[in-house]
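Progress report, Aim 2. The chain analyzed during this reporting quarter is listed below.
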Amino acid sequence: MTKTTLRLTEIFHSLQGEARSAGTPTVFVRLTGCPLRCGYCDTAYAFTGGVLYELDQVLREVSHWQTRHVCVTGGEPLAQPACLELLTALCDAGYEVSLETSGALDVARVDPRVSKVMDLKTPGSGEAARNRYDNLAHIRAHDQLKFVLCDEADYHWAGEMLTRHALAALTADIWYSPVYGELDPTELAAWILRDRLPVRLQIQLHKLLWQDARGK
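Predicted structure tokens for the chain:
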């Protein structure tokens, strides 16, 4: 029997820096490869290279940290078909599993126990044309949506998406995240309050603690 393998850039233990479980000790499984090239990407080192792991090896490494939460990220993890098997295996092992995905690839087959944290790529990312809006049909209340905002134009675009796709009816966890070093989070907070938006402001905790250090 052929064993399931995945190409990984890194596995590490840190505090979750984003989304609903921010601040929670988490094991991160970063898969190698991504078909997108967002202008603000801070994990370009995960585009190529990596090391082949068998699925059982990944599970053993994750278990070493004795942590309840696991985040599968990238790159774009769904670019590797075996990611789906990994997600299910982690859920079967009793972990609380989240998936960081760009929203450019089909999420229909992601294990329903996984909390999907799915981007809608803004014009400022340079990859808005890659948004797969039919993925919104697979967003449930325990999933999360994220907009990474470069500027005020991105903010207004995100507001249009909120209305056009009735996103607040899909999940209460809709995150507006300013690009680190480009959009002032205080200004973004003021816009959100001014416009009474049903969204949550997100500041990347790991950037505040460790800047751009890998494995943090």
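The chain is about 25% helix and 25% strand. The domain at 5-210 is CATH 3.20.20.70 (TIM Barrel). These observations will guide the mutagenesis work planned for the next reporting period.
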